[in-house]
Amino acid sequence: AALLLAVALSNQLVQPLLLLAEGMREVATGDLKAKPVFRSRDELGGLTRSFAVMTQQLADARALVEHSVTQLESARTHVQTILDNLTAGVIVFDADRRIETVNPGATRILKLPLSAYVGRPLEDLPVLAVFGKDIWQRFELQSSPEASEREHWQDSFELQLDEKTALTLLVRGALLPQGARLLVFDDISEVVSAQRSAAWSEVARRLAHEIKNPLTPIQLS
Length: 221
Description:
Shape: rod-shaped
Distance between the termini: 149 Å
Number of helices: 5
Structural class: alpha+beta
Oligomer: single chain
C-alpha cells in the first residue's frame, strides 16, 4: 500500500512538471500551439494553466507582428510603385546626408547613375558637388530658429552638367522623422526657356516701337 501510494503521488507530482518541460521545449523551437493543462486545483495545475495562457499570448503577439509586417511591406511596395512612376525626381537622404532612396525620375532628369551612389553623399558625384552643397545650405536655413518655414522649402537651382547641358531645376525640400531629408525636383528648363523667349520677344517689340516713334517725325520732316 505504501509503495502504491508513493507511485501515485510521484505521478501526480511529475506529470505537470513533464508537461511544463515538454511545453518549454516546444516554445524554444518556435512552436506556440495550444499547450495541455494539468487538471488539478493545486499550485502545479495553476502553473501549467499560466504557462498555457502565456504561450497563447505569445502566439497572438507573433500573429499580430506578422500581420503588421505584411501591412508594412504592402505599404512600402505601394509607395515604391508610386515613386517608380513619378516623372519628378525624388531623393531621400538619411540623417548623415547619405543617399537612401532614389527613384528612376531622378536618374532620368540628372542623367547620372544615382542608384550606384546609394549610401554615399550627393557631393561624391563631382558634377553635383556644388548642387549638393547648395541644397544642404538651404536645409540648414530651413532649420534655423529665425526661419519662417518649418515643414518644407522650394527654390530653383541652375545645374551645369557639362559644357553643352544646363538644367534649371525646381526643387522642393522637406524634413522627415529621425533627421532624414526629402528632395523632390523637376526639370523646368523648357519652361524657363519659353519664358525667356517670350520676354525677349516683348523686349524686341518695345525696342522696335521706341525706334519707330522718332523715325516717323523725321520722315515727315
